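Saturday, quiet lab. Running sequence design on the C-alpha cells for the scaffold JK sent over.
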C-alpha cells in the first residue's frame, strides 16, 4: 500500500515509539512515504535499527518508562533535526490475567508502559513543540479504553488505555491555544504480533470475530492511515479526539 495524505509532510520530523514492528512500524512507513523524516524509538535493539534503516530514518533505543531516557531521546532528536513536528506515542503491552490473580508486578508493568510512558513522551516531546508553537501528538489508546473486552481478563490493560484517552483530552485542552494538537487512536483487534497471541486461543478469537460487525481483524496499515491523517494538516481542526478503528466492535 502506498500512502498519500491530503497534505504532505515534507520536511517534518516524526518520532514513533514502539516503531520497530506492528502498528508502529506501519505508521512510521506511512509518515516516511508522505515526506517526513522518521525517528524510531524502541527498546528492541535488534529489530529497531533494521526498521529505521528500511525507512532511511534514525533509531534511538530507550526504556520509555524511565523519564530521564525519554528526555534524552527528545534532546537527541532536537540536536540532530532541530525540531519535532509529529509524535506518535505508540509503545505498549498487554497482560491477560484474572484480576484476583494479577500481581503487583504485572499491574505496574502495564500501567508504566501503557500510561506513564505515554505521559513522559507527551511531556518531553510536547516541550519541544510548545517552544516551536506547533506540533501534532498522537497517542495509542484502544477500544479497550472505552469498553471492557470479553472473554479475556485484562483489567490493567483496559485501565491503562482509558487513562490514555483522558490524558489525551486533558493535554489537548491545555495546549490547543499554544499550537499543539493532541489526539488518540483506539484500535480494535489488529493483526499484530501482540494480537496474534490471543488469536491462537480459538475460543477468544471466535468471540472476537462474532462481536466485530465487519467479521475480521484489522490490518496495521488500516490504523496507519488514521495516524497519518491525525499527523497531517488534513486534521487541522482535530484535537482531543479519539479516533476509533475497530471494525465496528464498539457500535454494538
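Result came back. Writing it out in full:
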Amino acid at each position: 500500500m502506498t500512502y498519500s495524505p491530503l497534505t504532505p509532510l515534507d520536511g517534518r520530523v516524526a518520532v514513533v515509539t514502539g516503531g520497530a514492528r506492528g502498528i508502529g512500524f506501519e505508521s512510521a512507513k506511512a509518515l516516511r512515504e508522505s515526506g517526513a523524516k522518521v525517528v524510531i524509538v524502541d527498546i528492541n535493539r535488534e529489530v529497531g535499527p533494521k526498521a529505521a534503516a528500511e525507512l532511511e530514518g534514525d533509531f534511538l533505543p530507550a526504556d520509555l518508562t524511565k523519564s530521564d531516557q525519554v528526555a534524552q531521546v527528545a534532546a537527541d532528536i532536537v540536536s540532530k533535526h532541530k525540531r519535532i513536528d509529529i509524535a506518535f506515542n505508540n509503545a505498549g503491552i498487554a497482560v491477560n490475567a484474572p484480576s484476583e490473580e494479577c500481581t503487583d508486578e504485572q499491574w505496574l508493568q502495564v500501567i508504566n508502559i501503557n500510561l506513564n510512558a505515554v505521559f513522559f513522551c507527551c511531556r518531553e516531546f510536547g516541550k519541544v513543540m510548545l517552544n516551536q508553537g506547533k506540533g501534532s501528538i498522537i497517542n495509542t489508546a484502544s477500544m479497550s479504553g472505552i469498553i471492557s473486552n470479553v472473554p479475556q481478563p485484562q483489567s490493567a490493560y483496559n485501565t491503562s488505555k482509558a487513562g490514555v484517552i483522558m490524558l489525551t483530552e486533558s493535554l489537548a485542552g491545555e495546549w490547543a491555544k499554544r499550537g499543539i494538537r493532541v489526539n488518540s487512536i483506539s484500535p480494535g483487534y489488529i493483526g499484530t504480533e501482540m494480537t496474534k497471541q490471543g488469536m491462537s486461543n480459538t475460543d477468544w478469537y471466535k468471540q472476537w470475530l462474532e462481536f466485530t460487525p465487519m467479521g475480521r481483524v484489522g490490518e496495521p496499515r488500516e490504523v496507519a492511515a488514521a495516524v497519518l491523517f491525525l499527523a497531517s494538516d488534513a486534521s487541522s481542526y482535530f484535537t482531543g479526539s479519539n479516533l476509533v478503528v475497530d471494525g465496528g466492535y464498539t457500535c454494538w
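Notes for JK: The CA atoms of residues 105 and 111 lie 10 Å apart. The radius of gyration is 17 Å. Ask whether to fix the surface positions before the next round.
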